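Input protein
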Amino acid sequence: MAEDSLDVDALIDDPATKIVVCCGSGGVGKTTTAAAIALRAAERGRQTVVLTIDPAKRLAQALGLRELGNHPKQVSIDGFEPEGELWAMMLDMRRTFDDMVRVHAGPERAEQLLANPFYQTISTSFSGTQEYMAMEKLGQLAATGDWDLIVVDTPPSRSALDFLDAPSRLSSALDGRMIRLLTGPAKAGGWGLRKVVSAGFSMFAKAVSTIIGGQLLTDASAFMQAFDSMFGGFRERARKTAELLRSGGTSFLVVAAPEPDALREASYFVERLSTESMPLAGLVANRTHPVLADLTATAALSAADKLDQGSENAPLAIAVLRLHADRVALDEREQRLLARFTKAHPEVPVISVPALPSDVHDVAGLRDIGDRLAGA
């Protein structure tokens, strides 16, 4: 393994490593990477749980489970006998938000909040909610002490940075000026909306009522009355979650495909982690296409042309040679892109993971990915 190569086995074998966060833009293979790392860690003796955000059933099927829920399930199938243990779960955003409300609000107020139509909307629709709930669930798992390694697959956000921004964004949204204006009647001791309107707020309130409806204003007002008492706990939880991500036991793995947009997003994430002093383990360059033979593209095309013009035409050999030439060109392109990333971030260890010929659908496939992650 090269000196600047990411050593995944050293990372997961280190007992000081408590949390591994796989992050990156959407569609780069974070879910499979997280599952493969968790499986490899379990087989090497760690008590491991993987938290996935991917609603597709393929990961559950790969782990031999009918489905994944909001609480960890142990992976126990024929042929899988790890030295440690492997547990898996899939984030249920709404249930996680509901559980958090119950913890902070108390039984009676919690039921008021959970039944409120405005809450039912924001618990699934506010920007950053999924990312925040992933962090909330991470905090819950860490607090139990049941596992010595937690592997997190972050949400498929448009921007990978959304995961780090989620606590402050959601907290600011719920404490924002717009919501305070919308819920003014409740904060003013139960004044009716009409009384606030008559106090110089009419154009704003009428416009908002036209857009979102008067009933939603009423629901929002009731929600903020109930939510206000637990807001301090909500923000404290967000602060603790952010601290957990900065702790020495947490390591970030940035996952990227060897494509310009994905590597650009990876660069932004690396810079952000550095700015906020968050521990970065390295970059996983996923689904690369290394060449399988020491033959240049020019030589392959030349040989194909000679065969094509010869008396004994060999169509299969010609096709293979031209396919190899295309593969060489693809590999050279990917190497240039990765070299550009490495030049910009020479301190970041990198491991390239060659693409599999087919999708992962079982433990053997995840084990294969794990081997490739370890440079085997």
Notes: Confidence is low (pLDDT under 50) at residues 185-205, 207-212. The CA atoms of residues 50 and 151 lie 5 Å apart. DSSP finds 17 helices and eight strands in the chain. The chain has two domains: 8-291+335-373, 297-333.
